[in-house]
Amino acid sequence: MLRKLCAVLLFAVSFVGVAHAEQKTRVGNFDIHYIAFGSTFLTPSIAKSYGLKRSNYNGIVNISVLDTRKTGNPAVPVKISGIASNLMSSQVNLDFKEIKDGKAIYYIAEIPYQDDGTINFDIDISKGKELNTSLKFSQKFYVK
């Protein structure tokens, strides 16, 4: 089932195009990959299996952290928390779920949105003394 989620997430990245393309930033020895997209890109069965609400007004933010010092850049567990806000400063605390699929680790949270709405993400990521950073990005969402 986890492999299906990964496949759906990869499909979502390719399907939604540049507006929702996966992004990456390097902080020290870590690559942080992040993407936000509408939850309707998940199949109903995948959404249900992970307790995610599939709706035209619900988005998903997905974060993964890779260690670039090690061969194959393996995923690493991190502590993650964050806030999402819209342009009217309405804030929502992000409740991240850790999902492990073999050696892959994903942190996924849901975010409500309105049509043609921009969501600003402010996400804190840490791993002991090795990583302590704040990831900030914005994503515009549309209703199908």
UniProtKB/TrEMBL annotation:
Statement: the UniProt record of this protein carries the keyword Aminoacyl-tRNA synthetase: no
Keyword terms, alphabetized: Signal
Signal sequence bounds: 1-21
Domain of life: Bacteria
A family per Pfam: DUF4426
Domain (DUF4426) ranges: 25-143
Descriptive protein name: DUF4426 domain-containing protein
Source organism of this protein record: Parashewanella curva
